[in-house]
Here is the input.
Amino acid sequence: MARRDLIAGNWKMNANHLEAIQMVQKLSYRLDPDDYDRVDVVVCPPFTALRSVQTVIEADHLRIHLGAQDAHWEEAGAFTGAVSATMLEKLGVGFVIVGHSERRQVFGEDDATVARKLRAVLGAGMTPILAVGETLHQRDDGETDQVVSGQARTALRGIDADTLATMVVAYEPVWAIGSGRTADPDAAAAAATVIRSVVSELGGAEAAASARVLYGGSINPGNISGFMAKREIDGALVGGASLDPDQFAAIVRYWV
Here is the structure.
């Protein structure tokens, strides 16, 4: 069974709820019905805009999936400023990014924390988009495979094969995020192969064949086709370019 491509936009800490409404409406105007038959399109606004975007998606019957940028591992409790996976699920969120490098690098999240968040997302019935990737120092030291496989293995260990088959993992080299630099498509495909081998190790060949592996890191309309030409890559986790509906629509329609 062929894997469906998935293009997700991570809006990060950008767009108030009014701007978010305009962005998702403009994106929907630029996509054709046939596009949704080929690609799962996900937008991940900041927490403050989730309800507004959900309302637009539902009222206009848009085929755009709602995603969130993070979730706490506990269902409820004294965690000021945190948002639980169960809260997100009640807002119609279907996908949640976990382990983004900015959460790891800026907020100090380690692999164990990422694993707890991933299980909370699964427990709430949503699909995690697990982000893994190496720093420039690790890349220069030839540690890419070791870092990527280690992050993926820690997060996915103990998950059953059927669930692993639905997993979405994004290879996002830390040095490429927001830098304007991208990994070579061949290098990204090699990292995707490493990720899929971890899924195979933990859940078997069928799970590995079904799981989707994305590339992320300064993706734009000019370079997306090179990554999507690699059979190992099933889509993209897009940062800055996803804030521009024209650019994001062009990325979603990478084959045009």
User: Anything to note?
Assistant: The CA atoms of residues 221 and 250 lie 6 Å apart. The two ends are 24 Å apart (CA to CA).
